[in-house]
Amino acid sequence: MVTRPNESVSEDFNPWTHVSSLIERAGHLLQLDEGMIKRIITPERILEVAVPVRMDSGNVEMFTGWRIQHDTSRGPGKGGIRFHQSVNVDEIAALSADMSIKCAVVNIPYGGAKGGVRVDPTTLSPAELERLTRRYAFSIAPVIGPETDIPAPDVNTDPQVMSWIMDTITMLRGYSAPGVVTGKPLAIGGTLGHAGATSLGVTICTLALLKNLARSPENERVIVQGYGKVGSPLVKLLSERGMKVVAVADVKGAIHVPEGIDPDALARHYGEAGTVVGLPGSDTVDPDQFWSVPSDIAIPAALGGVITEKVAETITASVVVEAANGPTTGEGAAVLHERGVPVVPDVLANAGGVVASYFEWAQDLQGYMWEKELFHQRLEKTMHEAFDAIWIRHGELGVNLRETALAVGVERIAEATRLRGLFP
Ligand code: GLU
Question: Of the residues 38, 78, 102, 114, which is catalytic?
Answer without folding.
Answer: 114
